[in-house]
Amino acid sequence: MKYDYIIIGGGSAGCVLANRLTENGKFNVALFEAGKSSDIWKVKMPLAILYTMHDPKYNWKYYSEPEPHLHNRKLFCPRGKMIGGCSAHNGMVYVRGNPNDYERWASFGLKNWSYEKVLPFFKKIETWSGGENEHRGGSGLLPVNQSKNKNPLFKAFIDSASEAGYEINSDMNGKNQEGFGMYDVTINEGERASVSKHYLNPAKKRTNLTIFTDSFVEKIIFDGKKAIGIEVKIKDKVTKVFVNKEVILSGGSINSPQLLMLSGVGPAEHLKEKGIEITHNLRGVGKNLQDHLETYIQQECKTSDTLYSYVNKFNMLRIGIQWFLNKSGPCSTSFLEAGGFAKSSPEREYPNIQFHFFPAFVIDHGLVEPDRHGYQLHASPNHPKSRGSITLNTSNPYDYPKILFNYLEHKDDLKQTIEAIDVARKILGQNSMKPFAGLETGPGTDIQTYELYEEYIRSKAETAYHPSCTLKMGVDDMAVVDEKLKVHGIENLRVVDASVMPEITSGNLNAPTLMIAERASEFILNS
Asked: What positions carry a catalytic annotation?
């Protein structure tokens, strides 16, 4: 088999690439995805996210190494293992990031990634329900909708943010990110608007696109320092597939560095240690890992407006039937739509904390059902200074890599998180929340000192599910790809996914990942 382009990974970025690279009909493209089709009700129903998050058929279900600054806890790190990747199992919150994030990227010698340069690609992605304007797109492939969730807790929370002195913002993806309101969501007509549905499905009928599911890429094949193909296991048979133009790696921030190292591209000492023949010594592969670490401020609710109402099996069945019949009701939303961005202290240059309000208690990533009505406010610093890494356990491609986030290694990350708890408490303590506000159960009203805050964070903080930056774009000696996403020192090989971010963006990562893939498509087609 031989194709013009091979895309490794059918996640968010891979689906965008598959569509754009086959649009003009000039190139034959193959897309390889280790997981299955995501054309199932569990993916389509917005409220059913936990069904795929904990299902090994549809999720890699990674865990970190013991995190040294979080009492050696191993943190759960779910990653989509299906067509559509994380867009098929995320919380569907659509956040571009702060315009200043991209100005920071440009300051690293990446002039093609300033906000002015990336804005047209963000606009190209979306058909926004608020209508096209200078900041938003109106004719893209992906429907992006302003949430219309009428849960009274959301209104009370947003009113409380205003009472606490924070701005109300009707479009956090517009000119200004700062403030609180309802997030944009990738939910359309009661169903998840995944990238597989809106980018890949329209391209499936093209004769120049071939999609392989249940196909595990074991290795990239090189001739010297030129990528010429892949070794892939399809239906228990390992096959070599060759390429005329480029191999494009879109496996995500964990799988992409793992596959590069298994193929001999990475830190030479580490590869030697694992008995891997070195194709190219590239020190930065797997380094610079970043994620958003969330702390939950939890409060009992005095009313029945929370998702605890649906823990009851009869109510669960009732709302499930409602969704199956006409795609309406509680199952047609994620309930993650309210939140915002704020400065944790006046000296911060721009909003450094993101908040998500959720009308239920989340216990062990949803594996344990709550036993009462409650709500929680998730607080996470946008720009952690701590850095982690992805390394190999063994040279076997089927062995999971070692993931060490190294959360809170930098003391400023802890300081910002403590400040964020204060902001969260300030908001939740306003008059608009009083009709709902019961006892604070986390951290708890007795937790008031710096030391007790610190213990709560180290014991309870969890990932926001945003691993990124492990194959960073740049010009320094730790950069892995250049500004057109070509791997330094290697021919015919690009990386297109969240791993190429030099720094994590402010907010959820799906929208920036789609922008990266749209931007990359133009680079590739113009090369």
From this structure: 466
